[in-house]
Amino acid sequence: KLVHVLHDYDSSLLKQLADALLNKMGKGVVFLANVSNGKVVFVCKQNSTYNAGALVKIAAVITGGNGGGKPDIAQAGGKDISKLEEAILAVKKEVSHA
Fold first, then answer.
1. What span, in angstroms and rounded, lies between the C-alpha atoms of 4 and 44?
2. Nearest CA to 1 among 40, 28, 26?
3. Are 76 and 61 in contact (CB under 8 A)?
4. Within a 10 A sphere around the Cβ of 57, how many other Cβ atoms?
């Protein structure tokens, strides 16, 4: 399990980064949050028992956004970066139960 916050990363490369990290890990879940231009983008990629769409939705809703995706890869956004820590803690709690 990898849950990590990035700052000012090229958002168009987040899915590629998540894919590369998951390949290195072998099996599990990679959840990335990228803070840029006063907003946050969440990307999740997994090849285990997690639901990537559900994980990004948890974080997005907490940060005043929305989004989701497929069970294996998903992306969402949020507007309230002051809630980022709360969102990351919620995701960490969710992946610690599985």
1. 10
2. 28
3. no
4. 20
Q: Does the predicted TM-score (pTM) go above 0.90?
A: yes
Q: What is the mean pLDDT of residues 11-25?
A: 94
Q: Which two tokens stand for residue 38?
A: 């006063």
CA distance 65 to 40: 9
Compute the residue count for the chain: 98
Give mean pLDDT, residues 16-31. Answer: 96
Q: Which helix (H) or strand (E) holds 93?
A: helix 84-97
- Please say whether the beta carbons of 14 and 36 come within 8 A: no
Q: What is the DSSP string of 3-48?
A: EEEEES--GGGHHHHHHHHHHHH-SSEEEEEEEETTEEEEEEEESS
